[in-house]
């Protein structure tokens, strides 16, 4: 298998009045798994389909393995693709589905069968080769679809929200499987999703898209801890929107001075503060009051009402819940981590 | 139904076996809803079929005989069956091919498109547009004095009847039957076309397949059972059609339904009612054979479907 680097340069695509891609640039190193994350209509699926050759870009370059493939038809791009759902051929068994691409490559029957067995084993379905798609669960079908895409040893693997049709538990299991397999086979992979948890959990890098462009791309930790823009801060994870004032290179919020992400003009702003950057302690003289508590297992969310009707959510260890029942007067403390602000 | 089945529903609706072990004789209340259906099927299908079967094996004196069934081998009846089967097969194949193409065009126009709504509405009407009205429509347009015939003859010098008055014989029946077979095909084949998912084409492409490969190895095999099943349905539809042919063909009885009419209503040859029933039995056998093939196709596709 030869994993290839991918470069998308200035991709533009317009559907009528809708601008799906507005000069998208993306670089992927060989063997890397990049997740494109964004809300519906941000252009992430369009980008993937253009890379697959299933859509044409209005302009821009698509370079895979050093070659511009913008004019290469989809069936000659050597890419494996897994769709949201229902992409298995229903009249073929799981093994025949996996062999489909190998048959197109004129591999002999013995080689096809051997390869199909290998990749079905890889996805944990070695014993299910003779089943028809409708005899498999949704998760198993997606595993077969993954096996089918991997069987042809593609240069690039494209995953178009492959977990979105599955229930929560299967989704978590399968995304870990996808990551394990991707690391094992080392194929350059573009994973499109609207689920931030999914993107952060399995990607080497996450690209957050908005209105046809990359808003930010970086490691999952960077994206979460150092969002470059208010959009990223709000789209990835939860954020408290708290009024503040920028003075120099800090923002004053709830009597705390927090460092800023990026340069911002002085003046009133809204600071976006993560719940885990907020601490709450019971204090009879505190100005806040606990209004709700949500138990989340090892952690808990405590919602605090502040004067002027402001609301702040803190994420704490759930062991501290007994000291913070609803109605408790509390003091809110912000940890000095860099925050993003919006005007 | 006397034998109660186990299950919560029985226990809720009524105790299936009254105390003392006596079984009740009346039907379960939850079957009452389908009673009209069973009555309908009994009155309009089972009893007529029974009458046909008994009549086919009965003589004028009411005694059992094989004469009527043996008469099915007579030349003119065999010819009528051959013509009926030919007419049905040709119009089924023509209707299926053209209807499938129209259906495909409709599907590619999008699920909510105006084209789709127009075509499906028109097909719904045209598929039922048989009988005297259809025959008249063709006579008025393509008959000896039909306006298209007159226009072609007077304006373009083309005489469509130079080879004979084909409209009132088998070729005419082929044309007229095809007219209602095409829209019927569109209606019955559209769900199968709708069931073809765009992801299958894209998956084929991403795996390296061409459009031809997709049709040959994916869409073709998936649509084939529905296509053949629809064709069989069209065959049965044409084979059992009567009113259109009766209105169009005034001389002779080229097809079986018209032969049956002749056997039942002829004022020249009397006492052939049971021969008519034997011919009807022959038709039942042909349609049953077609439906058996249809069932085989359904069984083949059932394992592919959700």
What does this 3D model show about the protein?
The complex is a heterodimer of chains A (343) and B (306). With 343 residues, chain A is α+β, with helices and mostly antiparallel strands. Chain A has two domains: 225 residues, 3-Layer(aba) Sandwich (Rossmann fold); 104 residues, Nucleic acid-binding proteins (OB fold (Dihydrolipoamide Acetyltransferase, E2P)), CATH 2.40.50. A six-stranded mixed β-sheet of chain A has the order 6-7-8-3-9-10, sandwiched between helices. In chain A, strands 13-12-11-14-20 form a five-stranded antiparallel β-sheet. A five-stranded antiparallel β-sheet of chain A has the order 15-19-16-17-18, with no helix packed on it. In chain A, a hairpin with a 2-residue loop joins strand 9 and strand 10. The termini of chain A are far apart. In chain A, 44% of the residues are buried. Chain B has 13 helices and no strands. In chain B, helix 4 packs parallel to helix 8 and helix 5 packs across helix 8. The N terminus of chain B is likely disordered. Chain B is globular, with a radius of gyration of 25 Å. At the A-B interface, strand 6, helix 2 and helix 4 of A face helix 9 and helix 10 of B. Chain B: Belongs to the binding-protein-dependent transport system permease family. CysTW subfamily. Chain B: This is ABC transporter permease.
Uncertain stretches of chain A: none
Query: Rg of chain B to the nearest angstrom?
Result: 25 Å
Largest interface: A-B, 31 and 21 residues
Kindly, what is the distance between the CA atoms of the first and last residues of chain B, rounded to a whole number of angstroms? 32 Å
What is the overall silhouette of chain A? globular
Biggest sheet architecture of chain A: 6 strands, mixed
In the CATH hierarchy, the architecture of chain B is Orthogonal Bundle
Low-confidence stretches of chain B: 1-18
Radius of gyration of chain A: 24 Å
SSE pattern of chain B: HHHHHHHHHHHHH
Q: Could you name the CATH topology of the largest domain in chain A? A: Rossmann fold
């Amino acid at each position: 298998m030869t994993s290839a680097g991918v470069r998308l340069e200035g991709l533009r695509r317009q559907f009528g009045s809708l601008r799906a891609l507005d000069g998208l640039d993306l670089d992927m190193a060989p063997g890397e798994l990049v997740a494109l994350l964004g809300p519906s209509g941000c252009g992430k699926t369009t980008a993937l389909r253009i890379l697959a050759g299933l859509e044409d870009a209005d302009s821009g370059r698509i370079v895979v393995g050093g070659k511009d493939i913008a004019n290469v038809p989809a069936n000659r791009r050597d890419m494996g693709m897994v769709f949201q759902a229902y992409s298995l051929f229903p009249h073929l068994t799981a093994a025949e589905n996996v062999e489909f691409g190998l048959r197109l490559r004129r591999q002999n029957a013995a080689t096809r069968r051997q390869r199909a067995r290998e990749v079905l084993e890889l996805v944990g379905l070695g014993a299910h080769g003779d089943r028809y798609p409708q005899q498999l669960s949704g998760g198993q079908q997606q595993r077969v679809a993954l096996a089918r895409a991997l069987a042809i040893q593609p240069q690039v693997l494209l995953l178009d929200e492959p977990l979105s049709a599955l229930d929560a538990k299967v989704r978590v299991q399968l995304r870990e499987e996808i990551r394990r397999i991707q690391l094992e086979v080392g194929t350059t992979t573009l994973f499109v999703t609207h689920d931030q948890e999914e993107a952060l959990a399995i990607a080497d890098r996450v690209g957050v898209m908005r209105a046809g462009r990359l808003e930010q791309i970086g490691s999952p930790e960077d994206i979460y801890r150092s969002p470059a823009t208010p959009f990223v801060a709000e789209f990835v994870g939860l954020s408290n929107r708290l009024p503040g004032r920028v003075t120099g290179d800090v923002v004053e919020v709830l009597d705390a001075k927090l460092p800023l992400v990026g340069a911002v003009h002085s003046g009133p702003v809204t600071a976006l503060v993560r719940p885990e950057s907020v601490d709450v302690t019971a204090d009879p003289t505190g100005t806040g009051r606990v209004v709700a508590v949500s138990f989340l297992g090892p952690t808990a969310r405590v919602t605090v009402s502040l004067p002027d009707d402001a609301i702040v959510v803190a994420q704490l260890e759930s062991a501290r819940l007994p000291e913070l029942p609803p109605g408790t007067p509390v003091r809110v403390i912000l940890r000095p981590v860099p925050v993003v602000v919006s005007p | 139904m006397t034998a109660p089945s186990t299950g919560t529903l029985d226990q809720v609706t009524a105790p299936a076996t009254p105390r003392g072990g006596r079984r009740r004789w009346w039907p379960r209340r939850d079957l009452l809803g389908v009673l009209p259906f069973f009555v309908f099927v009994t009155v309009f299908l089972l009893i007529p079929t029974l009458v046909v079967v008994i009549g086919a094996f009965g003589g004028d004196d009411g005694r059992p005989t094989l004469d009527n069934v043996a008469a099915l081998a007579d030349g003119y009846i065999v010819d009528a069956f051959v013509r009926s089967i030919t007419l049905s097969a040709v119009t089924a194949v023509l209707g299926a091919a053209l209807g499938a193409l129209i259906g495909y065009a409709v599907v590619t126009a999008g699920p909510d498109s105006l084209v789709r709504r127009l075509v499906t509405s028109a097909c719904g009407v045209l598929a039922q547009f048989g009988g005297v009205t259809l025959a008249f429509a063709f006579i008025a347009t393509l008959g000896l004095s039909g306006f298209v015939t007159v226009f072609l003859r007077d304006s373009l010098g083309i005489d469509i009847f130079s080879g004979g008055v084909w409209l009132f014989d088998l070729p005419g029946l082929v044309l007229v039957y095809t007219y209602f077979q095409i829209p019927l095909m569109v209606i019955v084949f559209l769900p199968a076309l709708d069931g073809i998912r765009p992801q299958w084409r894209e998956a084929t492409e991403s795996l390296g397949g061409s459009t031809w490969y997709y049709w040959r190895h994916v869409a073709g095999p998936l649509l084939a059972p529905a296509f053949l099943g629809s064709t069989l349905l069209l065959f049965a539809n044409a084979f059992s059609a009567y009113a259109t042919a009766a209105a169009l063909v005034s001389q002779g009885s080229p097809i079986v339904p018209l032969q049956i009419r002749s056997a039942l209503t002829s004022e020249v040859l009397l006492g052939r009612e049971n021969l008519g029933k034997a011919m009807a039995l022959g038709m039942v056998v042909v349609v049953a054979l077609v439906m058996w093939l249809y069932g085989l196709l359904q069984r083949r596709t059932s394992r592919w479907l959700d």
